[in-house]
Specification:
The protein is mainly beta. It is built from 1 helix and 18 strands. A 7-stranded antiparallel sheet has the order 1-4-5-9-8-7-6. A 4-stranded antiparallel sheet has the order 3-2-10-11, with no helix packed on it. The chain starts with 8 loop residues before the first helix and ends with a strand.
């Protein structure tokens, strides 16, 4: 059941307002989409929303979408809980958009997967449809900056990382050994390969900073 087969977005919207989604939760992943050769949004505050039991959609904070490209058109319900909307660029336009303003999904926008030119989690493209994070383990490349600082000393700084996402666990961040300016004790290195695991390095988590 792919989301681009939802021919009746108003019907979907009314169902979500009346019954709520099967489940929803925020995701720590960086999510971006390309539309008309430009980034439409770039956020780390997206949510997984299960419209059906099989796999989630990704809903985006409305505030993360370029305001000059998103236009609400008509209210779908009498309480003005959800609106149909369009996304328009100089060369392309789509009306496969829902903007939620009340209820469990308030503040979120549903942008149909197939209406965009490409979706990315961290720096990895998403193919086919969004994947259920409870049914897979993923290691995604990421150019998000990760910095570890002890006192006034930065001991690691990298924009070439691998993020490990496992069910029910916090993300774990791997960076190249070459990103470490202060060599940790040998017992703290989690691998003899080219990456080490930040969470195994003896540094409190609040000293790890990411945008």
């Amino acid at each position: 059941m792919s989301d681009h087969l939802h021919a009746d977005l108003p019907q979907l919207a009314k169902k979500l307002i009346a019954d709520g989604p099967h489940k929803q939760e925020k995701t720590p992943r960086r999510v971006r989409t390309m539309f008309d050769r430009e980034w439409l949004f770039d956020t780390t505050s997206a949510s997984h929303v299960w419209e059906h039991p099989y796999y989630p959609q990704i809903y985006i904070p409305t505030s993360a979408i370029k305001a000059d490209q998103l236009t609400k058109t008509a209210s779908i319900d009498k309480d003005e809980s959800v609106f149909s909307a369009t996304i328009k660029s100089p060369n392309k336009e789509t009306d496969r958009v829902l903007v939620f303003e009340k209820g469990a999904l308030a503040g979120l926008t549903r942008v149909e997967f197939g209406a965009m030119d490409g979706w990315f989690e961290e720096d990895a493209p998403i193919y086919g449809h969004f994947k259920d994070p409870y049914k897979r383990v993923e290691i995604l490349p990421s150019t998000r900056r990760v910095t570890i600082q002890v006192g006034d000393v930065v001991i690691a700084d990298s924009t070439h990382n691998m993020f490990l996402f496992e069910t029910m666990l916090r993300p774990r961040y791997y960076m190249p050994k070459t990103a470490v300016s202060l060599t940790p004790p040998a017992s703290s290195i989690s691998s003899k390969k080219d990456y080490f695991l930040i969470s195994s390095f003896p540094v409190p988590p609040n000293l790890i900073s990411m945008p």
